[in-house]
Write a structure and sequence with these properties.
6-stranded parallel beta sheet, 2 domains, Rossmann fold, alpha/beta, 15 helices
């Protein structure tokens, strides 16, 4: 039996990276692998036989005393605890492969060096742009920002990119500068896996070696989703309610197009979005944070899912999940979104930040015959069954792993 060591900050479904980490682990278990998990303790963590190796919880912005805040700051740069515990886990289970997802700030990149030092081939999925942009998103003060290109990381402090905080931005600057100087990721990761061609291209543009990069799309487990191809009336966004997601643009466009809009999620923009919707007389319903069946039941009743992002999205899991439920997607032409939406086949694309164009698209899709919407939904689910399925993802990863000594698929 081959053994995979799966590494991620959180051991529950908090965001897209955590979903991929958990679903990948379950996929490999189903294919006959032993999977050992390494993560951080958290009140919402799922049960794990490896929880005894998990590191102490760190939540930035948590209610800690000054000594704990200082300890967390040091750990975010290099965690001796995480390095020691993952080394102990490696020696316990002797994994054939280690696959990391998000490790920044909580586990810290110390885990990569510790695993690599034990002779384990190590891979990492790039769920964001953190290795290029200290703030992870290339989004600063309401706009796309590439000021750190060429190693000019000090711009994260100058622009106070982290929540407008000088202290937090300085901490992130120090962390990124240390690991850039040590070439932590270049030395300790055998392959960086880009889920979108856009992210792969951005790494190449910023000077990373093509030899260390490979494009493998994310996947969705279709068995977890019951589709409903019937066309609803309302347009839907689900995810975090934050400025880079383009939700002010979406609310304005929905008001212009006179279409109903459902927003599912929570975040710092919620009150502003409520006020904007009220001022425009827009038909917007706020559902709050939902997950699992409570979320998918809402998605099933929508006409289409909208991703109006204004930042560099990578490969949003929400697109794959919408397709899995049988819904087309209206997406902004930014980042990796255009790779995942086929115009007039699985949805529509529009220019990011363009209220008028999005309004025209919403009005058009609202007026299409329901049979067209249903056909798009079926084509979307069929496409991911071919290109973004569990089986395709598993084969692609095992083919990659086989270059480092894993010769069988179980």
């Amino acid at each position: 039996m081959s053994t995979l060591l799966a590494i991620n900050n959180y051991h529950y479904r908090r965001g897209g990276a955590d979903v991929v980490y958990l679903d990948q682990s379950e996929l490999f278990r189903r294919n006959g692998w032993q999977v050992a998990s390494f993560s951080m303790t958290h009140p919402q963590s799922l049960p794990s036989p490896w929880a005894g190796y998990f590191v102490k919880e760190i939540e930035f912005g948590g209610d800690y005393n000054r000594l704990r805040v200082l300890e967390n700051s040091v750990k975010s740069i290099y965690s001796l605890e995480a390095a020691a515990k993952v080394r102990a886990l490696v020696r316990k289970v002797r994994p054939d492969i280690a696959h990391a997802h998000n490790v920044y700030h909580h586990l810290s990149p110390s885990v990569l060096g510790a695993v690599k030092a034990e002779g384990v081939p190590t891979f990492m999925t790039l769920h964001d742009l953190k290795l290029l942009c200290p703030a992870r998103t290339m989004w600063s003060h309401g706009e796309i920002c590439e000021a750190c290109k060429g190693g000019r990381l000090r711009n994260v402090v100058r622009r106070r990119c982290m929540k407008g905080s000088l202290a937090l931005s300085t901490l992130i600057y120090v962390e990124s500068t240390v690991h850039q100087g040590l070439r932590t990721y270049q030395r300790n990761v055998d392959k960086l896996i880009a889920p979108s061609k856009f992210v792969l291209g951005k790494f190449l543009e910023w000077g990373w070696s093509a030899q260390q990069l490979v494009h493998i799309p994310n996947f969705v487990d279709l068995t977890r989703f019951e589709p409903n191809f019937s066309a609803g009336r309302a347009f839907l966004y689900f995810g975090r309610l934050s400025d880079e997601k383009g939700l002010m643009t979406l609310v304005k466009a929905a008001a212009l197009a006179h279409v109903p809009l459902w927003l599912v999620g929570s975040g710092p923009e919620e009150q502003g979005l409520r006020a904007l919707a009220a001022s425009l007389g827009a038909d917007v319903s706020f559902f709050g944070f939902k997950t699992d069946d409570a979320l998918w039941n809402i998605v099933r009743e929508a006409r289409a899912v909208v991703l109006p992002s204004e930042c560099y999205e990578n490969a949003p899991m929400s697109i794959l999940e919408a397709y899995a439920v049988g819904k087309p997607v209206i997406g902004a032409r930014v980042g990796g979104i255009p790779e995942m939406v086929r115009d007039d086949e699985t949805g529509c694309l529009f220019e990011s930040k363009n209220v008028d164009e999005l309004a025209r698209v919403l009005e058009r899709v609202a007026g299409l015959d329901d049979a067209v919407i249903e056909r798009w939904g079926r084509q979307a689910r069929s496409w991911i069954a071919q290109e973004y399925s569990s089986a395709r993802y598993y084969d692609r990863l095992v083919d990659l792993y086989s270059q480092y000594g894993i010769r069988s698929k179980a």
